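Structure representation:
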Amino acid sequence: MPRPRTWTRLALAAAATALAAASLTALTATPAAAAARDGVCDSGEFCYFYNSDRAGSISDFAGSVPDYGSTQPSCYDFKSAGAGQGLCVKNNAASVWNRTGGTVRVYYNSGYAGASQDFAAGAKTNLNSTLKNNNASHQFNPGTTGRFWLPFPCGETWEASTRSNHSPANAVDLNHYPEDNGYKVYSSAPGTVSKVANLGSTSYGRYIVIDHAGGWQTLYAHLSSQDVSVGQSVSEKTMIGRVGNTGGSTGPHLHYEQKLNGSVQRVTFRDGNPTYWGTRNLARSTNCP
């Protein structure tokens, strides 16, 4: 015997309400700190949507990414259920939600290059006609990260190496061939020295931390000498130490990190960016010490 129509309408309405609630939960999650990439747009994250108007599968990010990759299984992909799930993010996004506390810039090309579009904190909008389905990289707080210089003098070429099993993963090892021991190291940007420490034969060995504006820090490790002191103001032309082989290092090099509010970010420089993951030669060519 068929159910009365009134019961059917009530059941359908209840199902629709439950579905809407589930969809809202998937989009907003909780206002906790950004979690791992899980297809949920948490507070503190920047999120792509496969479709316009924040529809379809979600891909969430807690930091800058210079290259999403273009093939599975190594690319950054859309995580949540919905249209586009499992597809690579590169050149496949149509809208965004910026749940970070600052501006996020989306670029047409990898390596933070080409045409771009800025999204202010809280923005929920579509990518413009140039960037829609043509998104290749994005950068948190672009006005700040773009001011870091390679921490060496002009005229020197350094090999920047990254690897996924590095500790921390976003750190960069910098080598000058055939020899780099004793080479001068400079601050990457104006700031104040907040730590000058020596861990002996473990971990970073001799290292320096410099605080910069906007919650940024840079860290320089395995140094053979430290030529600054805590509280000292430095510029991008201040020599702070020399490359060494201290701590847990297996050979002379500079271990380098950029942190935002304590979280290690993928490194960016004014004169070019490292490749994640792999090696790339970099040379400073502007504002030379």
